[in-house]
Amino acid sequence: MLHRPVTLTSLLIAIGLITSPFSAQAGVYLEPEPPTPDNLPLSTPVQPEVLSAPTVQPVTPETLEFELPSSREPNPKPLYSDEQPLRLEIKLSRRRVTLYRGNTTVKTYAIAVGRPGWETPTGTFKVQQMFKNPTWVHPLQKGISIPGGDPENPLGRYWIGFWTDGKNWIGFHGTPNPKSVGTAASHGCIRMYNTDIEDLFKKVSLGVEVKVVR
Fold it and tell me: CB of 80 within 8 A of CB of 104?
């Protein structure tokens, strides 16, 4: 028996790896081998764009510049300083008494002064007495008096005494007869409207100077 040499082509045909155009039904379709990391096409990878970091400029807080005054500005002067003493000045001819704080006028009040023969003494004195609801004693007739708080009391509700001869007194007081204010009608005292003497009583104190001029 003769043996024919086996060639590579015939061997491949025999196992069906090579098909002839005339034997299509016996052919086997082989899918292409998937690529492996070793046979991937070489290419230069695209580098992602690198964004440069922004330049951060240090922020310096804004500085306000202004010139400080060399010395503190003085405060506005008050109407009058409490450090200056109060004083009263009575002008008999004008029928007025003025309350001063130093040389500044605080308030002026209308008054009645002593009648002829009972003139209010002139000079410089000090407040020596201050009390409410004084008792009135008749200057001529002994034993006649009107208690404090009585509506008919000639002294009213407030008394500010500034002169004495050791027995009799002269001072500021109210009156049940407001029409007499502005005249020479008293026995030497200084009559005032009841509202005015109350106001003055609240403002002055013992020791305040009282100057009486013509």
Answer: yes
- Catalytic residues, by residue number, are 173, 189
Lowest mean pLDDT among 49-53, 115-119, 124-128, 179-183: 49-53
Q: Which CATH class is domain 86-213?
A: mainly beta
CB 171 within 8 A of CB 159: yes
Q: What is the pTM of this model?
A: 0.62
DSSP-derived letter for residue 118 is S
Q: What is the DSSP letter of 53?
A: P
pLDDT value at position 53? 52
* Residue 190 near residue 111 (C-beta atoms within 8 A): yes
Q: Are 174 and 52 in contact (CB under 8 A)?
A: no
As a whole number of angstroms, the distance between CA 52 and CA 55 comes to 9
Close Cβ partners of 91 (under 8 Å, ≥ 6 residues apart): 97, 98, 213, 214
First to last CA, the chain: 181
What does DSSP say about strands 113-114 and 184-186: parallel, antiparallel, or unpaired?
parallel
Backbone conformation region of residue 14, classed left if phi is above 0, alpha if psi is from -120 to 50, else beta? alpha
